[in-house]
Queue: 2 jobs
Job 1
Amino acid sequence: MAYKYVLLFKEGNGSMKELLGGKGANLAEMTRLGMPVPQGFTVTTEACTRYYDDGKKISEDIEKEIYGALAQIEEINGKKFGDAENPLLVSVRSGARASMPGMMDTILNLGLNDEVAAGLIKGNNDPKFERFVYDSYRRFIQMFSDVVMEISKKTFEVIIDELKEKKGIKNDIDLDVNDMKELVKSFKAYYKEKKGVDFPVDPKEQLMDAVKAVFRSWDNPRANVYRRMNDIPYSWGTAVNVQPMVFGNLNENSGTGVAFTRDPATGEKALFGEYLINAQGEDVVAGVRTPNKISQLQNDMPEVYTQFVEIANNLENHYKDMQDMEFTIENGKLYMLQTRNGKRTAAAALKIAVDLVDEGMITQDEAVLRVEPKQLDSLLHPQFDAKALKAAKVIGEGLAASPGAACGKVVFTAEDAKAWAEKGEKLVLVRLETSPEDIEGMVAAEGILTVRGGMTSHAAVVARGMGTCCVSGCGDIVMHSEQKYFELSGKKYNEGDYISLDGSTGKIYGEAVPTVEASISGDFGRFMGWADSKRVLKVRTNADNPRDTAQGVRFGAEGIGLCRTEHMFFEGTRIKAMREMIVARDVESRKKALAKILPYQQNDFEEMYRVLEGRPMTVRFLDPPLHEFLPSKPEEIKEIADELGMTIEALKEVIDSLHEFNPMMGHRGCRLAVSYPEIAEMQTTAIIKAAIAVNKEHPEYNIVPEIMIPLVGEIKELKFVKNFVVATADKIIAQAGVKLDYKVGTMIEIPRAALTADEIAKEAEFFSFGTNDLTQMTFGFSRDDAGAFLGSYYDNKIFESDPFAKLDQTGVGRLVKMAVELGKSTRPDIKLGICGEHGGDPSSIEFCHLIGLDYVSCSPFRVPIARLAAAQAQIKNPREK
Ligand code: PEP
Ligand code: MG
């Protein structure tokens, strides 16, 4: 009989992951391949979805199907569930489409009760066997209580320890059959005390409770966090696998283990794994007994070993990928309980992909699809020593804003960071939030920790740009920066104390965890070569200084997609000239100040053009609200007033006049250039002169400057600013007596620009989508403050991911797509790119590929990720080159 919500293993196959989950599909596939799999059934992911649709209930029809399938596996296995004579015991395990830590995993020995235990023993007088039965029984009560009823496992361990103490023994192994019986009794009594009802004796009730527990665990907080981090949709649901038990703890001729067909840490081709004789699955992971290396099985059970090696090889050849397998040996007979494509480090992933191509198992395209783009990241940053990290204590958690590992002494100001670094100290800069003024301190620090701010906060964006580790938005920190300490998890951390940050997980450690330099093996280059030969999307980098530019180029950037010029104005003497420009009350004095800035700006561009060696660079005009450049502290105000020869009051007045209630929607972007065209003239002059100078040194570079005007929403704004650009540029080019092409384009980062992109394209030779602002303005919430409420949006399933990190394709994406089409309708050869944070996010990159952008631009350390994501997008959905 065919069911709708339940499938026997023999009815499925490996391609049915969506319906059966990964574990279920692979058990079905192994069954199909004739491998020794205890024959059970899978309750499908659709049953899980129904469970939630029906108000967290298993409906009668699904219950019926489960019992029907149970009857069939009773028949196949010749045993009966709950039968005292010949009982069937099962394991119940979750299995989503993608393996998901954080969910309920396994209950073993389900189906046991007093009668069944007594029945099992009947006819077998070996006292060891009786002990085994009661040992299994007490384990079952423990696991069931823990995962189904949420009674912590630890409390049961306490009961075991008490018994051992009473008897004066050290190891569980020394507990005899009577002890096990006593444990069963006390466990059940404890269960009743906690839950107010008896431990369920009806195996069918046990089974249904366990199935529900698996479904429930799909929605627990840990699973939700994991899903968000790994782009797994909530709608997928999980399947449940019910499988007859085989016993690795039956006797000395039994055992259990896990093995990989290749080393998951290095990728080396050799069977890798461990096993324990006379043990159940949990013993291997629990670490109570030290498992043996898999190779030793060759001596312990040579025939089983040979069979296992053969199965492992067949599985790898079949799946054409490294397999992670679980097996159990019951009384000398081998059973396969699971196989899946094994999780692996980035280095192993690359080696395995490259080796499989060399072994003729997969094509280069398949290899390119095998490596998770985000995984590459760990190869590009320093890493924690894995052992030391495991032993270290987590004191708090923030957003994993910029990956990498950082360990250093706490400092609270950018100046201290700079000064301490000059003395050779390694340090972590801890700030309430960062601002552009902190830049030098941020460069000097190993890592940055902030109390406020989301994934696109200043700290996060700048840190990612520099490839510096950053954990942002750790709201649990209580800051006392004036007194130079902070409090977290009830402890005080003073200036100079060591802390460590893991920018890949957001975890904070209250001690020095040693780091090791990440190494890039030779496979990396070869692999990326295959990816590059595939992709049609170009990959540029966001950089605003020669150092980041060089880093981006080393990582394969094909140019700069966004040079944020404001970042160039914060250092040393430039900030003075900048402030002078801002407080100027008339055009003449503003022009005077701008004239001081010009040489710095031109020099920066020249250096960057040199590093780029002919690769293109899009330079964006000044964008942020001007008050960001002004001082706020009284002593700073005094210093600057003195410097500018103004009274403190006069300077304060200027600062007050620049105050805006909503600066993100205020006097910024092209609005600055509309009010003060001389700024646009100065920036144009710097860019054009720099290009002429470097072209003169290196005619082969043939630089074509790309000038980008930000925050345009109306064609006339663009035209107004562009007129100044063209007039200035043409004049300089004529004066220099050279030939120089240049392009003027705009950012599309205001919804109105997207909606009128056909108009805008009349003036713009290129569009670059600024999806940070576009997301902010489309949703209507601030990119800097969204962290305050996104948590409740996740909890209530309104959002599954951060729209500032992963492009909202439905809304913001629709605007982008519309602008692409409108822009092309006016100017078919318009160049299209993206330079918002989404330009480094794999799923957003896939979207950019699909809608026909020419390039993505992202921070230097994300360039390899973007290259790989772009290649994968092309392999999955080929587009004309
Ligand atoms: C954007 O808005 O997406 C963008 C790239 O500009 P910024 O982040 O500098 O506002
Ligand atoms: Mg912007």
Note: The first strand starts at residue 6 and ends at 8.
Job 2
Amino acid sequence: MKIYNTLSKKKEEFEPHEPGKVSMYVCGPTVYNLIHIGNARPMIVFDTVRRYMEYKGWQVNYVSNFTDVDDKIIKKAQEEGVEPSVISERYIEECKKDMKALNVKTATVHPKATQEIDGMLHMIETLLKKGHAYVAEDGTVYFKTRSFREYGKLSHKNLDDLRGGNRSLLVSGEDQKEDPLDFVLWKPKKEGEPYWESPWCEGRPGWHIECSVMSKKYLGDEIDIHAGGEDLIFPHHENEIAQSEAANGKTFARYWMHNGFLNIDNKKMSKSEGNFFTVRDIGEKYDLQVLRFFMLSAHYRSPLNFSAELMEAARNGYERIVTSVSNLNYLSERAQGEAPVGEEEKLLREAEGYVRKFEAAMEDDFNTADAVSAIFELVKFANTHASEESSRAFIRALKEEIIKLSDICGLIVEKADEILDSEIEQLIEERQAARKAKNFARADEIRSLLSDRGILLEDTREGVKWKRA
Ligand code: AMP
Ligand code: ZN
């Protein structure tokens, strides 16, 4: 299996350090708001990586944190007049709901920064002892960036370029630093902020230290994969490497994986820019499986531009698989013979070819776009060859293959009694036609039929809008 490693800028053969066991850390969200669909991209992408590895029979130890102490959380808490933990706990719960709706598996551990302060104090102490950190007059503890010779190896930046050239890359703002490249490990509290006791001052941790500490605690000094969005390469992941490798004296992570941005109008979707849709916004309009399908229709390292057209295409693609599975269910109820014979056995071997194609795409740095194409080919194959004359076992085998591959992508394609987006829209059209023909009884009937299935209609000036309740 090949993975593109940001560290070497190459696709490398991936072997877990311990055969059959993968340790993986994915930087999680800062919880002060509902997550937007940009935040959902790494969740979906790395959940798919995990699912594929589990399909290979590997045991994946998957850790993803919640950053629950941060300026933005504190600000929001002050605005609402509540404790910061009220805000962070609220949005952790909301985030978990979104993850569930996106069919993102729960991590092996979801640590929270505020629960790991002891570990942070301990690592900072080690860094001070080893001469990689220093305490400024006001009690701020800084990492001495130049003391870590390999600084810049992940982002492929040179220390001197960082210093002399692009000042916007500097982590600046604190004037007691010995060097502008140094970054905060611990900082003094400000009035009204949450704080913890420490040997240096009452204060709170800098952002980067939490991931170094949680990764060490739950996965050990050396892990297989560390991942997150590409905006984290510098400075966050660069700083994590410096802290962990300076403190532990071991290679922190062997493979670094980064997803490309989800853009809107070719600009990064972000909370601070205000150009974002929350997962909830999208969930009102679409089945969230469509969003998951949309994310997987591009390679995880490519930028992906969000648009209504691409979401429509994703909806069609996703529904093509769902419809095929539902059709196979229908046929299997009507099938006569039990066991596949002759021609059917040959066809099933042919169908295996699509599974191999799917695997080959995933083994090549998780090319989910090609993997999804392989599912489509299998769907087309099933639609062509399964009929009421087929044996039940043949139909079921095809259905199970489609479900198996979809499940690796985290896509739920067998729906118990769920109504598809396209069916809803067809019914809405029919209702409009009934109204036009003044057949209000039928129009009302359609409205209540939809409402029974949890679909709410709203008549607006721009036409009928609908959402899932
Ligand atoms: P944050 O809450 O900003 O720390 O982000 C949590 C995770 O979402 C990180 O891995 C970010 O890199 C990722 N992320 C944030 N915005 C986007 C985006 N527009 N596209 C892709 N990933 C993003
Ligand atoms: Zn992190």
Note: The CA atoms of residues 51 and 408 lie 5 Å apart.
